[in-house]
């Protein structure tokens, strides 16, 4: 196969590993910086120009689109889809996963366990919002935050209300969520490839931090998940239409609850914690599934 790895920096661990895994299996793989692509939609045939040439001959695309460049990155993925190149994660699914509210709505439609979540445009009724989310403590999140940035704990009703009002004052979209205290600052990240959980880890926040993100100094260990957690992770990936993703869950008193589904999950933490060759699993999945024009989401938002 000839594969395009869409990423900003080919030197990151995850990207190096995907390229190694592809080459080890006899494939050709090019790292393509999506921000340097020029999309040509005016002509009869959709094309992508890149560093003075037209991209062609690719069988499959592995998108690794950073959260800050979702708009242009997903447009490049969409252009590949129009060129009938198989994209392991499709543009629609990536765009969905970037918006926490939209993701939670899709997950709730499928009956997947979620923390109680409230979203409001008007923040002048902060007191009601906090009550609807089950009362303080509550977690307040930016809709498009990542790496734990923009995730705040409102410990008391007054603190929660002033945080909500502060975000409202700068016109930022937030959601307010039940705080799953019993998770004890730990969450579960399941790496889903196709219809399987290929690796799972438990992440624990730095001392004194309820956020377990590795980017915030958290640590990771391999974990054996329950059948219910496995089924939840797989259903969440399916609801989002993602073939490769990291599903983040909390162990709550009422079973596993999904916080979010990440469409470009980092591989370093999970491969190191579990010893699983996740990059290899991704390449194997592409080998089995690529087909010109094949789509899971059929472009549906
Ligand atoms: N409702 C909640 N109850 C308890 N802890 C929570 C809750 N929501 C988030 N957390 C903690 O905060 C962390 C960050 O939250 P979340 O995953 O929603 O943010 P993010 O910025 O999108 O992170 P990512 O880098 O994984 O995309 C979680 O991994 C979890 O440890
Ligand atoms: Mg996230
Ligand atoms: Mg997360």
TrEMBL record:
Annotated cofactor note: Binds 2 magnesium or manganese ions per subunit.
Cofactor(s) this protein requires: Mn(2+); Mg(2+)
PROSITE patterns reported for this sequence: ATP_GRASP
Species per Swiss-Prot/TrEMBL record: Allosphingosinicella humi
Superkingdom of the source species: Bacteria
Ligand binding (Mn(2+) 2): 260, 262
GO molecular function, one term: ribosomal S6-glutamic acid ligase activity
Residues annotated as binding Mg(2+) 2: 260, 262
Domain ATP-grasp: 104-287
Gene3D superfamilies listed in its UniProt record: 3.40.50.20, ATP-grasp fold, A domain (3.30.1490.20), ATP-grasp fold, B domain (3.30.470.20)
Binding site residues for Mn(2+) 1: 248, 260
Family: Belongs to the RimK family. In the C-terminal section; belongs to the RimK family.
Chain positions recorded as ATP binding sites: 141, 178-179, 187, 211-213
UniProt cross-references to Pfam families, sorted A to Z: RimK (PF08443), Rimk_N (PF18030)
Annotated protein name in UniProt: Probable alpha-L-glutamate ligase
